[in-house]
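Sample log: Sec translocon accessory complex subunit YajC.
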Amino acid sequence: MFVTPAFAQAAADPMGTTGFLIQIMPFLLIFVIMYFLIIRPQRQRQKAHLEMIKNLRRGDTVVTSGGLIGKIVKIVDDTELQLDVGEGTKVRIARSFVQDLRAKGEPVKE
């Protein structure tokens, strides 16, 4: 009439892998969602920004990360350029500080 505890217990998984996979599945799902919503778009924006910085040339109007808007007067070297921010004021900045390209300039005639 009474059921012994041995009959009431379920058969144990000898490897214990099923429980582990069920426990780790939400973490894997969260990582996949984070990859597609955060990491992948950030990499694409970073790649586009590096391409934009690489293709800067004299005559382009740019916005720096500090908020200065100016026209590129001279490309000093691979890491620096010179901006004319108005009234003949020229500023020398690092290329990496260029945040946005407002307008492409005309190709320079050599």
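Observation: The chain has two helices and five strands.
Observation: The CA atoms of residues 45 and 51 lie 10 Å apart.
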